[in-house]
Amino acid sequence: MSDKMENMVPEGQQPIHTARFRLTPAAYTQLNLIVQRRGLKKRRLLTLALAVGVTLIYCILTNVPVSTTILLMVTEALVVLPVSFLMDKWFLKLYARRSQRLSPAALDEQLFEFYEDGFRVVSGNSTDGFVRYNRIVSLARTDDYLALFITDVYAYLVMGDAADCGMQELTEFLQRKMNGKPLENYRTH
């Protein structure tokens, strides 16, 4: 059987659940907020490690005394963490501005059809390929959306109030299909 045939919905099968979604600037901003939060600790630790590493290499190459090297690295850590926090806020503002310029094609309403083995997305005159549930690496929930992450930064968003079965039932259905992978919670209330 070819890859193309494996990615198709079995003939005659009806979707178990359906949901609609329309990308808006608010949805795009929420998705980017999730992506930013998911990588926050890793990004900050990497930034700190790089800054301290560069300082350590400089101090070794220039024969700076050990006490001065330690003082420089501690001072650097105290400066890098707040700067990293400010950079995160700046990136979120950048994403928010970018989301206001979404292309009209991205704003088409999408219909999600959830089947026993996977889901597909229909928007306008096009249909995305069939996505098997084992390709979903994680689920994330905000107040308004459920994000189905295919990679660390690429996700499908489903509107919370649009699912025919209710968001809680759809979330539980997807968690069962994903063998109980945890749900990341980004709800504020």
UniProtKB/TrEMBL annotation:
TM region(s), chain numbering: 45-64, 70-92
Keywords annotated in UniProt: Membrane, Transmembrane, Transmembrane helix
Domain YcxB-like C-terminal, residue spans: 114-158
Superkingdom per UniProt: Bacteria
Protein known as: YcxB family protein
Source organism (scientific name): Hydrogenoanaerobacterium saccharovorans
